[in-house]
From TrEMBL:
Its main location: periplasm. It comes from Gloeocapsopsis crepidinum LEGE 06123. This is Extracellular solute-binding protein. Signal peptide: none annotated. It is found in: Periplasm. Keywords: Periplasm, Signal, Transport. InterPro entries: SBP, Sperm_putr-bd.
Amino acid sequence: MRRILSFVVLFFVALILPLGCSGSNQTNVSDSNTPSNVLSVYNWSTYIAPEVLTQFEKEFNAKIKYDTYENSEALYAKIQPGNPGYDVAFPGDYMVAIMANEGLLEELNLENIPNRTHLDSTFMNAPYDLENKYSLPYQWGTLGIGYNITATNNQEIDSWATMFDPKFAGRTAWLDDMRHTSHLAPIRKTTNT
């Protein structure tokens, strides 16, 4: 079975989520003059700007096959029966441990990743991969509610319950990831200054 390399998106219990989690299932960033070097990537949508992928292709004379998924469970469902050909994937923290235990991830050769020295030590050797054998930190963020105060008629969104207010019906969106939306913590109000 072909295993894949994994770079992890850091999540902190119920407070962290990836920044973009919706979108299409596949975006091919290349023209028909395809080089023989192909890097097949499986990632959350909106994590890498298309122009960055295009720049990488030009600089390294390579083609990127870039597929996206909505949550780590979707990634697991596609990889678990057998890797369909991905070279790099970006599972969430808990999924790294599951996939490593099942032999779905290839160990990283850290000598081939010299830029790892620039990663903040706070995010290294996490409990789900203590020696960074299968993953390196890539991104992290904070779960919260964002809204346009003008669009809410100056009503502040100061609780999760407000998200269910009938006057906002059909105008709210939730992350399609039960693991992170079912463990919501109380909202701490912040303001821009």
